[in-house]
Amino acid sequence: MIRVSGLTKSYGAHRALAGVDFEIEAGEVVGFLGPNGAGKSTTMRILTGVLRPDEGQVNVAGRDVLREPLQARRQVGYLPEHTPLYRRMRVGDYLEFVGQVHGLARRERRAAIARVHGQCSLEGTLRRRIDELSKGYRQRVGLAQALLSDPAVLVLDEPTSGLDPNEVARLRALIAELGQTKTVLLSTHVLPEVEEVCSRVLILAGGRLVADDSLEAIGASQSQSLQVVLRAPAGAAHELLAGVVGVARVGVPRDVVDACVAFELAIDGDSRTSERVSAAIASKGWALVELTRRTETLASVFQRSTARVVDQR
Ligand SMILES: Nc1ncnc2c1ncn2[C@@H]1O[C@H](COP(=O)(O)OP(=O)(O)OP(=O)(O)O)[C@@H](O)[C@H]1O
């Protein structure tokens, strides 16, 4: 549904995107993460035809965004980070205007406004001026304009930023619901938001894609390491642990308090490895003080993949 290849973009001498490639299948809800300045908004603006890349190809719902911008734009609903609402307009007039821009006939516009009015819970706001609304309601109007043409693809740039917890919960629930019928690319700095609504995550850093993982794969890698703290001589303990079946690698020993030593063990995912580790330690008569599985979380994936890029720069 979205295909991006070899995307580059510079602002003057500053290279914001340095060759970005990814594909998103129909029906996926994908989290788009990255540190500030990574290039997420730039990518989203290119995807939605607002900005032209220096190089690269962009295809949305079978349309080439650079060659067929109008047709491509009809397939994409875009909620920018700072929604350019015409604040002095009334909500109903604004949506009417957006419908006209999309080329919808009068009857289609009426039906579309009724649809987004319900989807975005705009009850009682159609006759109100946009600048009189709370930030939460203005964001609802922004989403309503993105949904007006009933696009196959939704591109949402930090949609819940600055909203109160109730609005955040409501908007996340709506995004999850929309994700059942639409392809969604969601940029956010809030990792639990991604965990709640997305099935996959793309991480951008320094204008390059540094990670592309399904949330399921991140969850499944939870048993990849064990943290062991035991009271034993470091050298002998290292040798013992390295010989346990299922232990792929033993990290450097770290001395901790009270004559204990700590190791991080990379393990092969066999669920009985921790049992074998504790049995091996018991066989030596050493005290096992702590044995924990280290969980690979979205936060640790984010930190690991973005730190690597910062180091390279
Ligand atoms: N119009 C512009 N003129 C000059 N530089 C720009 C412009 N827009 C973005 N940049 C720069 O390009 C880089 C990428 O910006 P972009 O807004 O795409 O990042 P982002 O990942 O969306 O960041 P954030 O999470 O802070 O919103 C940044 O270094 C930014 O300062």
Topology of helices and strands:
Elements: E1 2-11, E2 14-24, E3 29-33, H1 40-47, E4 55-60, E5 63-64, H2 69-74, E6 76-79, H3 91-101, H4 106-119, H5 135-147, E7 153-157, H6 165-178, E8 183-187, H7 191-197, E9 200-205, E10 208-214, H8 215-220, E11 225-231, H9 234-242, E12 247-250, E13 254-256, E14 260-267, H10 273-283, E15 287-294, H11 298-312
Parallel strand pairs: 3-8, 3-9, 6-7, 7-8
Antiparallel strand pairs: 1-2, 1-4, 4-5, 9-10, 11-14, 11-15, 12-14, 13-14
Helix pairs in contact: 3-4, 4-5
Bound molecules: adenosine-5'-triphosphate.
Short précis:
The chain has 313 residues and is α/β, with parallel strands linked by helices. It folds into two domains: 2-219, 3-Layer(aba) Sandwich (Rossmann fold); 222-295, 2-Layer Sandwich (Alpha-Beta Plaits).
Notable characteristics:
313 residues; alpha/beta; 2 domains; 6-stranded mixed beta sheet; 5-stranded antiparallel beta sheet; elongated; binds adenosine-5'-triphosphate; EC 3.6.3.-; hydrolase; nucleotide-binding; ABC_transporter-like_ATP-bd; transport
What can you tell me about this protein's structure?
This is Putative ABC transporter ATP-binding protein YxlF. A six-stranded mixed β-sheet has the order 6-7-8-3-9-10, sandwiched between helices. It contains eleven helices and 15 strands. Helix content is 36%, strand content 29%. A hairpin with a 2-residue loop joins β9 and β10. It is of the alpha/beta class. The mean pLDDT is 89. The protein has two domains: 218 residues, P-loop containing nucleotide triphosphate hydrolases (Rossmann fold); 74 residues, 2-Layer Sandwich (Alpha-Beta Plaits), CATH 3.30.70. The chain starts with a strand and ends with a helix. Adenosine-5'-triphosphate binds next to β2 and α1.
